[in-house]
Protein: Simple sugar transport system ATP-binding protein
Organism: Micromonospora phaseoli
Amino acid sequence: MSGTSRAAIDGPAGGDRPVVEAVNISKRFGSTVALSEAGIVVRRGETHALVGRNGAGKSTLVSILSGLTAADAGAVAFDGRPAPPLGDRDAWRQRLACVYQKSTIIPTLTVAENLFLNRHARGSGRLIRWSELRRDAERLLATWSVEVDVRQPASTLSVEQRQFVEIARALSFGARFIILDEPTAQLDGAGISRLFTRIRDLRAQGVTFLFISHHLQEVYEICDQVTVFRDARHIVTAPVAELSRQALVAAMTGEDVTMPEADRRPPSPGAAVLLSVRDLVTRSGAEISLEVKAGEVVGIAGGGGSGKVEVAEAIVGLSCPAGGIVAVDGRVLRPGSVPDALAAGVGLVPQDRHREGLVPLLSIAENVTMTVPHRVGRHGIISPARRDGLARRTIADLAIKASGPQVPVSDLSGGNQQKVVMGRALASHPKLLVLITPTAGVDVRSKQTLLGVVEDVRRRGTAVLVVSDELDDLRICDRVAVMFQGRVVHETAQGWSDNDLVAAMEGVDLHHV
Ligand SMILES: Nc1ncnc2c1ncn2[C@@H]1O[C@H](COP(=O)(O)OP(=O)(O)OP(=O)(O)O)[C@@H](O)[C@H]1O
């Protein structure tokens, strides 16, 4: 860190000093500039949103604020005091904690062990007293009104419970500044409102939040300040109430953005049925029957626990159903076999890109062409030039922010990784494209690109199945089947209103099928 900028933020500690003040932060990864003289000031007791397109530099800033990455230049101060040395993890833990989308708790240990094991074991030289550990954990969770049985293995926690446990753990280290990195991405409507209630309660108790989200309506609902990054730079910081939605989007993108909508022309009556699902029943009892024709986009909507992802995973072979038949272009698929689904012409964007989507250490080119060796070589010999050519087209078509096809996928931001998954699904020229929550974690402009690509492929005759609870995703559909508690409870064709659809997803629809 440079001496001059450190001097600029040195001063008396505490008082009115910001909880965190990052000034003139620059960071490069090879030739990529992740942050260029960017900064943020977060004041005590506020809930401050950090927004920006995929690759804008948000995660890099968080990683610098958390002491996990060193900045090339610039200075960070907490409560007016310079940040501790990188290696002093305890000191960082007392200042802030970050609750990531991916859990940092150990699934095989109990909640109590996750909360206390390191601390109890460290340096004490004495045996762990399990009853003491449990009581401490219960007391800690009770202090922050988290209702969870501390004896249960962490693997059994819901996403919501896990986040609350991680927040309580952070507070127990003394941190009063918490970074929430896309906390609502995996929650349903009810879970989101419980999280927001919790944030408001904690804020009243003096906890400060930095809230990262691609859902701008959430920023308006829960935050009082917003900072926008674009292309590695700080663009604006303003009270949320003073920045219109349009101005916010313009700050993020440098332009105005409108989402694509379905062009609402029904597929021709003679169009071939490319997906036929008959009486499919998943292992946990969710059921669906549906058809998708060439050139048609059909949605399966539903909140958390509706069964929409389960049925989608059974359709594409990610799980083995208990019964029913799935056929792609007349060919019946082998249950539970993704390779068979791919061979039959399915292109897939799975929900969990970390687990099923990508090989992070391989390049964009290798990931995009993984399922289409025949398109990039002959007789089993891959042509690097053809492979890179195909990857370059994908990078251009999907506006992936990367310096070239050889960049490892692990170096890309989350939203750009999602575009690589989409690129791979399209590389096989699928007859049927199945997208499971395709725009989760994707910024507004990238969403527009991804959904625009769906419009293009459907015009070329691909059948598309979109499985999502995002209205923007569902708006491109010709028809939507809404699931609730494992059943399709509502089907709606063109002309549906957002309100009807949301009501049906929440299980309060009046026109049940
Ligand atoms: N370890 C790394 N190695 C190389 N490049 C990286 C690394 N981490 C981030 N980058 C690059 O730095 C830039 C900023 O990425 P960052 O992850 O901070 O963006 P972000 O705003 O969090 O995006 P998203 O919303 O997609 O998560 C991107 O171009 C990314 O590819």
About this structure: The CA atoms of residues 9 and 262 lie 51 Å apart.
